[in-house]
């Protein structure tokens, strides 16, 4: 347990930040999973899920909850999946 006033305050700050970061990461992961679930559906729904996931990733990277390179990598992976879905030939 912290003894000094500053250590006690840092403990309060780190607890609050940890909870915020966990909440942000949970929403990011939820949006990515929703995008992956939408891969089976129509392309327009997939596009909207892609936009939502990218928005969440960008916001998390802007606040440094996740590293900007991680956000860029995830967005690239999602964009590749979206492009593959849009350019796939329809099954006949």
What does this structure look like?
It is elongated and about 65 Å long. Helix 2 runs antiparallel to helix 3. The mean pLDDT is 94. The protein starts with a helix and ends in a 5-residue tail after the last helix. 79% of the residues lie in helices and 0% in strands. It has helices at 5-37, 43-62, 68-87. It has three helices and no strands. It has 92 residues and is mainly alpha-helical.
Largest sheet: none
Radius of gyration: 18 Å
Number of helices: 3
User: Helical content, roughly?
Assistant: over 70%
| Whole-number mean pLDDT | 94
Give helix and strand order, one letter per element, not per position. HHH
Number of strands: 0
- Shape descriptor reads elongated
> In whole angstroms, how far apart are the ends?
66 Å
Overall SS class? mainly alpha
Low-confidence stretches: none
Percent strand equals under 5%
What are the key terms here?
92 residues; mainly alpha; 3 helices
Secondary structure blueprint with pairings:
Layout: H1 5-37, H2 43-62, H3 68-87
Helix pairs in contact: 1-2, 2-3
Give a brief outline of the structure.
The chain is mainly alpha-helical and 92 residues long. It has helices spanning 5-37, 43-62, 68-87.
């Amino acid at each position: 347990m912290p003894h000094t006033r500053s250590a006690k305050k840092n403990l309060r700050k780190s607890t609050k930040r940890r909870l915020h970061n966990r909440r942000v990461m949970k929403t990011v992961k939820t949006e990515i999973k929703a995008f992956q679930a939408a891969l089976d559906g129509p392309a327009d729904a997939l596009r909207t899920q892609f936009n939502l996931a990218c928005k969440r990733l960008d916001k998390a990277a802007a606040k440094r909850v996740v590293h900007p390179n991680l956000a860029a990598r995830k967005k690239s992976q999602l964009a590749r999946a979206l492009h593959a879905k849009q350019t796939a030939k329809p099954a006949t």
